[in-house]
Specification:
Length: 181
Amino acid sequence: MLYNEGEDQTQLLNSANVLESKIESVLHEDIGEVDDLIPLVCCFGPAKYSFIPSGRPANRLIDHEIHDRMKDMFWSPDKFVRAPGGSSPNVALALAAIGGRVAFMGKLGDDDYGQSLLYHLNINGVQTRAVCMDPSAPTAVSLMKVRTEGSLKTNCVKPCAEDCFLQSDINPAVLKEVNIK
């Protein structure tokens, strides 16, 4: 039997076309079949904007022992970086970044920070259908400060939407979709 490279390539091309059309039909006809393959993870909790110091008092590493003696650790930075997130949204963003199906459930203020955070979650692949927007409470805003041991301390500026999350704000449809075993 003679080897025919043209026939092999034709068979390979036909197989690839069949596989591609099957995938396309599944994606277009019933997205539910694809969703069943990747489980939904629901992250819920506080979401906030953090203002993080954008510099340090010196161009060298900080020696906390020296700064403690000099009372130099009461540093008040001039500039802050605005960082959307919070522990739950950060987990949701990380899972979405590695290809997971993830939804965030929480409460945001219906203000510029809340709209911006909602947009940030959406463009990074996190489902936000379970997010409640509260027009009567602001989105959480936190200031971060460097502690003596080098860790960051976060202080929430004022009462906010995350403090108003109620049982009635929970979206049961999202929880039903999560496959808890």
